[in-house]
User: Which sequence fits this backbone?
């Protein structure tokens, strides 16, 4: 489908004010104050158009897809496949390279279990190159979300391969000089996050992919925090697999996607098996459809896929370049403001360095849970805890942090109100006098 | 400032979050723990219990997977009485204050009275703000009544109490 052309002028508070009208939840109050939603890194809010797309699907087209001869089933199938095409176009992929999953976690597990099945000898000759065993290594990074760590731990445990990781430095940046030795001839797969969900840092995809290519390893990109916030072209990043979740990009929960390079998806054995993914079935065995159907067993998340297609259209019409630029501005404002407050340690890149609109921080003397509670009382929703990245927090000497994350619907006034509230936290808990340092 | 917030973070809670009564090494060989506990005088029940091996100890490690907070608590029991509580851990103001208040409250209590306090505290935490706490039984722990209105924080307040319950069971006396 044609990606609609977006305006070229930068986003502004004025235009964001109009965008906010599309998001009913943002007009709500939280604890008697106007809601300031700074937790889009966890889950984003939905525009009316997305909710209407799901409702319209149920009111007009609901039927099982890829089966049945009646017209409604054809309409449902068309809607589902059109959504696939929309999502594929959004990241520069072909539709048959997009597998719908329930979320990024399932997408990553799909790859891990398919390789696991290949390691058991399933999938025949074509799948043999995807087998892992003792002597092979899987490489991840120390900053991974648990969703891009545990599936590889489990794959290593099932196959006898070893799991290694690229360490981070004290600021959380990947130590690329060590990556070159961690990734070696034994490496069969490199899985890493594009943008850290804790640090907001944008990892050097090209360098990492180059290291992996040099040893013939597959590359898996966790794009949960990048696809929603910046333009991503899978051909340009040249990775083999990309995982992302719909609910972080204006879509509903329960839908995500795996991009897989066509030649890999064609060669890999299925993960989940059952209806809708087969050609011939006997009592003894089954033959499987080509991808993406091979990886979509059972009745799929049709209404969610349709709504995700609508969310992608909303993002494309707004313009991913403009969203990226606006959030870069918000992210910089967050970090500059946090750095100016006594007792705040920002995790990840300093001000002036690239990051998305996301900043996690530690408040000296006040636990993240208490910080979040204080902000909640001011109507501000943030994330507290380890953000599903315990190893990274441990490496940074923390068990938990507080995280503010923006999206296209956040204003500079909201960031400023958040900063004002953060500046009050330490005095409320008796950790320090109130105020901003000189 | 929001009165709901101040209802949650009572001054007594903020104070205990800093004082942390009972915080110290839970290594059974360690003499740590900030509960004042004089050396058992010769002939005292504790010394007698020590001599006869009747001083039982148990420990429990609790983790709040939501925030990663951890707490280890050790209890010493003799003659069915809580002799000493020591805990170590890291966590939010609510969980640290709760461990501190608990230590003061149950030290010296009989095992049965302590279990009564635990039951009342758990009941209070599950009440969603519908119970007026009995300060006769709960002492300073009554200050946590406001926590019950914040379901996401009940686990923080309960962390040390759950550890105490398990530690007492582990002491097996």
Assistant:
């Amino acid at each position: 489908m044609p990606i609609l052309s977006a305006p070229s002028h930068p986003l502004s508070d004025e235009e964001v004010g109009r965008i906010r009208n599309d998001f009913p939840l943002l007009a709500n109050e939280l604890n008697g104050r106007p809601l300031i939603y700074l937790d889009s890194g966890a889950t984003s809010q939905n525009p009316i158009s997305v909710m209407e797309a799901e409702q319209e699907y149920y009111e007009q087209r609901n039927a099982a897809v890829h089966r049945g001869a009646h017209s409604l089933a054809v309409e449902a199938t068309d809607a589902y496949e059109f959504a696939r095409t929309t999502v594929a176009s959004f990241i520069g992929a072909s539709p048959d390279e997009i597998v719908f999953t329930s979320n990024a976690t399932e997408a990553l597990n799909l790859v891990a279990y398919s390789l696991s099945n290949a390691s058991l000898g399933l999938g025949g000759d074509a799948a043999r190159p995807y087998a892992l065993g003792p002597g092979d290594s899987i490489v991840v990074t120390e900053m991974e979300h648990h969703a891009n760590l545990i599936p590889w731990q489990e794959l290593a445990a099932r196959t006898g391969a070893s799991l290694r990781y690229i360490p981070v430095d004290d600021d959380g940046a990947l130590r690329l000089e060590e990556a070159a030795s961690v990734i070696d001839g034994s490496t069969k797969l490199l899985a890493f996050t594009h943008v850290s969900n804790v640090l907001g840092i944008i990892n050097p995809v090209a360098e990492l992919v180059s290291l992996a290519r040099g040893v013939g390893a597959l590359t898996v990109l966790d794009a949960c925090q990048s696809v929603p916030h910046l333009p991503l072209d899978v051909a340009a990043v040249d990775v083999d697999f990309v995982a992302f979740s719909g609910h972080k990009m204006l879509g509903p929960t329960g839908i995500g996607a795996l991009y897989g390079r066509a030649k890999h998806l064609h060669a890999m054995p299925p993960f989940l098996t059952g209806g809708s993914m087969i050609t011939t079935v006997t009592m003894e065995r089954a033959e499987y459809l080509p991808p993406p159907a091979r990886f979509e067993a059972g009745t799929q998340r049709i209404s969610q896929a349709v709504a995700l297609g609508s969310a992608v259209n909303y993002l494309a019409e707004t313009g991913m370049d403009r969203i990226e630029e606006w959030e870069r501005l918000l992210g910089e404002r967050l970090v500059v403001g946090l750095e100016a407050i006594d007792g705040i340690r920002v995790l990840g890149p300093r001000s002036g360095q690239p990051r998305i609109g996301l900043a996690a921080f530690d408040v000296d003397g006040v636990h993240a849970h208490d910080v979040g509670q204080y902000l909640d009382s001011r109507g501000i929703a943030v994330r507290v805890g380890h953000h599903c990245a315990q190893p990274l927090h441990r490496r940074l000497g923390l068990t938990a942090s507080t995280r503010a994350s923006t999206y296209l619907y956040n204003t500079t006034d909201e960031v400023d109100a958040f900063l004002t509230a953060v500046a009050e936290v330490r005095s409320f808990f008796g950790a320090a006098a109130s105020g901003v340092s000189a | 400032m929001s009165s709901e917030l101040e209802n949650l973070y009572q001054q007594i809670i903020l104070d205990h979050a800093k004082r942390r009564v009972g915080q110290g090494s839970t290594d059974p060989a360690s003499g740590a723990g900030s509960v004042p506990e004089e050396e058992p005088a010769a002939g005292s029940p504790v010394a007698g219990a020590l001599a006869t091996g009747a001083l039982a100890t148990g420990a429990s490690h609790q983790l709040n997977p939501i925030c990663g907070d951890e707490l280890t608590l050790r209890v010493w029991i003799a003659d069915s009485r809580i002799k000493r509580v020591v805990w170590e851990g890291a966590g939010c103001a609510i969980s640290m204050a709760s461990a501190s208040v608990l230590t003061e409250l149950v030290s010296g209590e009989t095992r049965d009275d302590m279990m009564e306090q635990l039951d009342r505290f758990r009941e209070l935490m599950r009440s969603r703000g519908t119970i007026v706490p009995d300060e006769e039984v709960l002492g300073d722990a009554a200050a946590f009544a406001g926590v019950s209105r914040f379901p996401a924080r009940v686990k923080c307040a309960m962390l040390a109490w759950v550890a105490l319950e398990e530690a007492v069971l582990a002491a097996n006396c």
About this structure: Chain B touches chain A through 23 residues (CB under 8 Å).
